[in-house]
């Protein structure tokens, strides 16, 4: 399956330019990742998928290798995705966490992220796609260490219509091993 995002050149401007293309690609990859189990592998692409408790690390290798770790929160009764996290290693930028937040949250309020109740810098919404609203968060070494050693990541937003808080919790079980594997695979290593 092929996804292409069209973003007008005048829309990708200013200080957010470095985020647009990677975030849109990340959101597309997240959509592809969730459908990968239902589709057969393309003959010219190799896919590696590994589970680390709450996390899935996936690498797709075609012309280039793209690796990411993901976690989805899914409504049990319907199977509908409520929210998702995606971490990618980006050349020259380091790791970036992307939160795919549900619709209906106030953009102006951003998201407050915390690992075990220790707040990270406030994150701002970038855009919304059919699969949810994209919130990119560059990860410095301190934030990475919190993700490795923490138990849960919490994202708190405010609804756009009535200012009620929406709290989304993700498990960090397996995050240390998943982050290490993501780093190795992104660097070209395929075995332990």
UniProtKB/TrEMBL annotation:
Domain of life: Bacteria
Keyword Disulfide bond: no
Signal peptide: 1-38
Pfam families attached to this UniProt entry: IalB
Entry keyword set: Signal
Name of this chain's protein: Invasion protein B, involved in pathogenesis
Organism in which the protein naturally occurs: Roseibium aggregatum
């Amino acid at each position: 399956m092929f996804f292409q995002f069209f973003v007008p050149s005048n829309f990708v401007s200013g200080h957010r330019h470095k985020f647009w293309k990677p975030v849109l690609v990340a959101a597309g990859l997240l959509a592809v990742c969730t459908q990968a189990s239902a589709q057969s592998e393309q003959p010219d692409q190799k896919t590696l998928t590994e589970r680390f408790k709450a996390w899935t690390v996936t690498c797709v290798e075609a012309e280039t290798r793209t690796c990411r770790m993901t976690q989805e929160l899914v409504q049990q009764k319907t199977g509908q995705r409520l929210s998702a996290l995606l971490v990618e290693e980006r050349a020259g930028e380091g790791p970036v966490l992307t939160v795919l937040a549900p619709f209906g949250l106030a953009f102006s309020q951003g998201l407050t992220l915390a690992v075990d109740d220790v707040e990270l810098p406030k994150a701002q919404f970038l855009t919304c796609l059919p699969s949810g609203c994209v919130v990119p968060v560059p990860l410095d070494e301190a934030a990475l260490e919190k993700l490795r050693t923490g138990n849960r990541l919490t994202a708190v937003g405010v609804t756009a219509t009535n200012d009620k808080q929406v709290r989304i919790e993700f498990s960090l079980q397996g995050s240390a091993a998943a982050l290490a594997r993501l780093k190795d695979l992104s660097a070209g290593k395929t075995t332990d």
